[in-house]
Structures are given as structure tokens and as C-alpha cells.
Amino acid sequence: MEEDTKPLLIPVGGDESNYGIMNIQFNPEDFKCKRPFHVEPKNIVSVNDDMQRVTDEASAMNKRIHYYSRLTSPTDRALIAPDHVLPAPDEIYVYSPLGTAFRVDSCTDGYGKNSSIVTIFVIWNTMMGTSILSIPWGIKQAGFTSGIILILLMGLLTLYCCYRVVKSRKMIPLIDTSNWEFPDVCKYYFGSFGQWTSLLFSMVSLVGAMVVYWVLMSNFLFNTGKFIYNYVHDINVTDIVPGTNGSNKVICPSAAGDHPPQNGSMVFSSGNSTGFELFEEWWNKSQTVPFYLIAVLLPLLNLKSPSFFAKFNVLGTVSVIYLILLVTVKAAHLGIHLEYNWFTEDEFFVPEFRILFPQLTGVLTLAFFIHNCVITLLQNNKNQENNVRDLSIAYLLVGLTYLYVGVIIFASFPSPPLSKECIEQNFLDNFPSNDIMSFIARIFLLFQMMTVYPLLGYLARVQLLRQLFGNAYPSVFHVLILNIAIVGAGVLMARFYPNIGGIIRYSGATCGLAFVFVYPSLIYVISLHRAGQLTLPVLIIHIFIIVLGLANLIAQFLL
Predict the structure, then answer these.
(1) Strand, helix or coil for residue 185
(2) What is the DSSP letter of 54?
(3) Which of 130, 127, 219 is nearest to 448 (CA)?
(4) Is 268 helix (H, G, I), strand (E, B) or coil?
(5) Which of 89, 185, 425, 547 is 20 to 30 A from residue 318's alpha carbon, by CA?
(6) Is 380 exposed, middle or buried (0-12, 13-18, 19+ CB in 10 A)?
(7) CA–CA separation, 493 and 502 (whole Å)
(8) Sign of the torsion angle spanned by Cα atoms 406, 411, 415, 420
(9) Taking CA 349 as the corner, what is the angle to CA 348 and CA 350, rounded to the nearest 5 degrees?
(10) Residue 431 and residue 439: Cα distance in Å, rounded?
(11) Across the strands, what pairs with 102?
(12) How far separated are the first and last CA of the chain, in Å rounded?
């Protein structure tokens, strides 16, 4: 008897499913992967040798599909064919009145390609970026214990907000949102204001990342070139900055004074001092090297498609794994150097809690930022019901990676003789240019960033020019002007403000304000209000999240 009471159109989805006309539920993500279609004979332009005949059962099913489709107007999605009359995805064929059909090899249009393990790995690989180099510095700014707590709390908070982004499409009724990205959701709720502000903050995150990349590429290229030149010419360079002795040397560039020499080395032993001085003049970290990158990267930015560079995405994984190896080896040689003081500072150690902790939260906002592309990444998950679980596992792995690198570098930093204040915003700067392991790390990161940089430029171009001109490549002139502006921003920062920690936290707090804190919370509150399900505790919690985002942004400019 219970079977007789079930509706013909089977409800699918969770508590936040879309609601169609007459309160019929459907999952828009099923549209593309479960909608068989009919091909008229005139539209069949080629056939396969292994074409299969349509069975009577398949023919009957095809008639039933067309019956459902004619019950309402073409624009009405309430009577989408239910699951029980559809074949499995791997059994869908293109049917024709000729009595033949051929199998559709890929009916998912992007859905269901990756297993959960691959999805988790892709999210981890996408989220792991340049922020990992600044995590030890952020822990130093916040204090060791406070830093660990903040990494855990920020990971949980950004995960929840990312969960709200994933669910945001499914809370929109009456509309097929299966192809929507989060900016489309913002446009639905906030109109053109939501569309343009989401574009603005997305551009901030992309351009901010590209500026950080330029500063780091200048740094890595400088140190790599310096290492190669010294090795080829058998030059023994002694860094003038304070540091430890021994084979695992650690240096403190910030202790050399407010205006240290750009190249960080002055004492050398070589038969050709004039050649070395000439090299130092033309190979300068801030005055020449940032400009050399233009000759390589600006032409790459103007390519219509960066698909070639996407093949090198695996380098990101290799770089992170190598960084973890480097950190482990260095810690094994340096040992652990910790001393706990909650509020008082001494010559070599920092307190467990410091008022500068918002600098770490700014870095972490960008470090855990994936909110503007998480919907796209999860669409490729084979098991859509596991999206939340896989996203949570990915965030857990990212948080553990940040914790491991940050804690190990901070704990093993040799104090004494050096102060923990010497930890640089890019922790690789704490190792001299002639350190072999650091040299290999810089090579990996330099090549990886030079392949990722055109991809970021392509994303920025697509988002901005498509909104302005309706075309991602309106003309060579428009693209060139945009790329020159982006490259110019990177060169200026590398020349006058090579402060990657500051750039990361400013851009992270700015784009995070919209995509992490404000929009996901507001959209959830508004959707619940329209459904009549909003409660006071939920409202207070999400207002508090928005306030945290505002405070995080404001604090970056006060400290």
C-alpha cells in the first residue's frame, strides 16, 4: 500500500533540494547525465560499424520519455522524466526511428569522472599554493600556541563557508542551476551588484596571486642564477647577514639592517672580482631580475589558450612534497628549539600569544581559499553524494600540511643563536643561496609558477573581458593592455614592496571577505528567510561570521 502512495516523480536530493512547480523535487545535476534524447533521421550524419539495434523495451522507453516531455511546455521542468524510466548512464543510447542506436560514451558533460580519492587530491593540490611558504612566519606573528589554534579554527570556519557555497545552488527554487558557478548564485540573490562585486573580489584574488607569484619568481630566479654563477666560476661567497655555522646554515636576512644590500653578499674569494661585481650589478633581486621575467611571461600571457601549461599541474604536487621533505630533513639536522612564554618576550623567543595574530588569519584566509572554484571541482566527482565528505577530507589534509610545515619550521629554527623573529615571510629565504636542498626547491617552485602564471592570467582575462565585452579574447589589443597592467603590478611590487606576507594577507582578507564570509552567510540566511525556516540562532551565528570577516580585513591595515 505504501508503494501506491508514492508520487510518480520520485523526489531526489537532500534537505536543500530544488523545488519545482507543484512542490515536485528534482536534482538539476541529473539533467545532463540522465536525459535520453531522440535524433531524427535527417540529423544522423554518420554511423558506426558496430551500431546496435534498438530493442522493443528501449523503443517503448523512448515513447514514454516523449510522453512525459509533452505533458507540459518545453520550458517547464516540473515533469522531468523520473529515474525509474531512465537507463543507467552507461546504457544510454542515441535512438532513431530507423530502429538503430549507438551508445553515448560520455553522457555526463563533466559529471562523474573522478573517484573520491582523485577529487580529494585535486582539491588539496588546488588549495596548496604560495601561502605555505608564509605559514611559519604567520605562526611567529601570532605566537606558537596561538598559531596552531588559529590554523585549526580557520580551517573549520573556511570549510563551513565552503560547504555553504556548495549547497547554495540547490537552495534556489524553480530554476535549473546545474551549470551555475558561485558568481551566478550571487547574481541571482543580489542582482548586478552581486555579479560585479563577485567579479571584483575574484579579480582581487587572481591578481593578488599573480603579484605574489611575480615577487616569488623574482626571488627564486635571483637565487638560482646566483647559485649557478658562483658554482660555474668557483666563487665562494660569504653572506654578510647573521647566521649559524656548520653545513646546515640558517641565516637571518632581516637582522642585516633596514636597508641591506640587495644581493645579500659582499665578501668573496675569486680571481675575477670585476666580473663578480658586474654580475652583482646586472643580477639584482629587485632592480633587474623582475624585469627579465617580462620577456618570458608576457608573451605566454597573450596565448589564446593556456591548455599546454595545464599539463604541468603535477609540478605543484611535486613541489609541495619536496618542501615537506626539505622541512623534515632540516628539522632532523637542526633539532627542536622551543621555550614557552605566554605574554613575555625575550631575546630569542616570542610569546605564545601576540597581538599580531590577525596577520596569520589574513594569510590563512587565502591559504584555505577555494570557494570561487569549488563547485567546478566537485562537479567532476563520480559520487556526488560524497561531495561534503570529500571536501572535508581535503580540508583536513590541507590543514595538516600547513600545520606540519609551519610547526616544524618554527620549532626547529635555531634559537639561540638566532631569534625566532628572524623567520622570514618566505621561509626559504632563511637558507643561503648556496644551500643545495633550497636551490632544488627554488628550481621546482620557479618552473611550477612559470607554468601556473599563464593559467591565472587566462582566468583573469576570461572573467574580466567576458563580462566587459562578452568575449574572452575580444582583440589582441585588449588582451595586451590587460596583461601589461597585470605584469606591471607584479614588477612594481617586486621592485618596491617585495613583501609576500603582506600581499598574501591583504589579498586573502579582501577576497575572503566576499567569497568566504559575507556572500555564503548572506545567501544562506536569505534562502532560509524566503522559505520561512530562519531561526534566531542561525541568524546570530552567520552575522557573527560576517563580522569576523570584516574584522579580519580591517585588522590587516591596522597592524
Answers:
(1) helix
(2) P
(3) 130
(4) strand
(5) 425
(6) middle
(7) 11
(8) positive
(9) 140
(10) 9
(11) 94
(12) 68
Q: How far is Cα 401 from Cα 151, in angstroms, rounded to an integer?
A: 11
CB 345 within 8 A of CB 487: no
CA atoms of 533 and 547, how far apart (whole Å): 22
Alpha-carbon span 75 to 77, nearest angstrom: 6
**DSSP letter (8 states) at residue 29:** G
Contact 419, 348 (CB under 8 A): yes
Cα separation of 208 and 267, whole Å? 36
What torsion, rounded to 10 degrees, do the Cα atoms 368, 370, 375, 378 define? -60
Q: Looking at this protein, which amino acid is placed at residue 219?
A: N
Among 422, 392, 478, 460, CA closest to 204: 460
For residue range 226-246, what is the model confidence (pLDDT) as tens digits? 888 888 877 765 556 777 777
3-class secondary structure, 266: strand
Sheet holding 93-95, edge to edge: 52-53, 100-103, 93-95
Could you report the per-residue pLDDT of 320-335, keeping only the tens digit for each? 899 999 999 999 999 9
Task: Specify the 3-state DSSP secondary structure of 372.
Answer: coil
Residues facing 101 on adjacent strands: 52, 95
Asked if residue 345 lies in contact with residue 351, where contact means CB atoms within 8 angstroms, the answer is: yes
pLDDT of residue 62: 63
Please list, in sequence order, all residues whose beta carbon lies within 8 angstroms of the beta carbon of residue 246, skipping any fewer than 6 positions away: none
User: So what's the pLDDT on residue 100?
Assistant: 44
3-class state of residue 385 by DSSP? helix
The DSSP string of 433-449 is: TT-HHHHHHHHHHHHHH
Closest by Cα among 449, 381, 378 to 181: 378
- Give the predicted TM-score (pTM) of the model: 0.75
Name, in order, each residue with C-beta under 8 angstroms of 231's C-beta and a sequence gap of 6 or more.
none
User: Could you please report the per-residue DSSP string of 234-253?
Assistant: T-EEEE-S-B--SSS--B-G
Query: 95 pairs with which residues across the strands?
Result: 38, 101
* Side chain identity, residue 318: V
The CATH number of 116-254+283-558 is 1.20.1740.10
- Grid cell, residue 296, equals 618570458
In the chain, where are the structural domains located?
37-103, 116-254+283-558
Of the candidates 164, 16, 205, the one whose C-alpha atom is nearest the C-alpha of residue 542 is 164
Span 110-157, pLDDT tens digits: 444 778 888 888 888 888 878 899 999 999 999 999 999 999 999 999
- CA–CA gap between residue 311 and residue 559 (Å, rounded): 40
H-type helices in 81-181, by residue range?
Answer: 116-127, 135-142, 144-168
Handedness of CA 453, 458, 459, 461 (dihedral sign): positive
With 0-12 / 13-18 / 19 or more C-beta atoms within 10 angstroms meaning exposed / middle / buried, residue 446 is buried
User: What is the rounded distance in angstroms from the CA atom of residue 559 to the CA atom of residue 551?
Assistant: 12
Whether the per-residue pLDDT at 369 is higher than 60: the answer is: yes
504: closest CA among 147, 126, 215, 152?
215
3-state secondary structure of 265: strand
Q: Which residue has the higher pLDDT, 35 or 461?
A: 461
User: Which H or E run includes 103?
Assistant: strand 100-103
Residue 447 exposed, middle or buried by CB count within 10 Å (0-12, 13-18, 19+):
middle
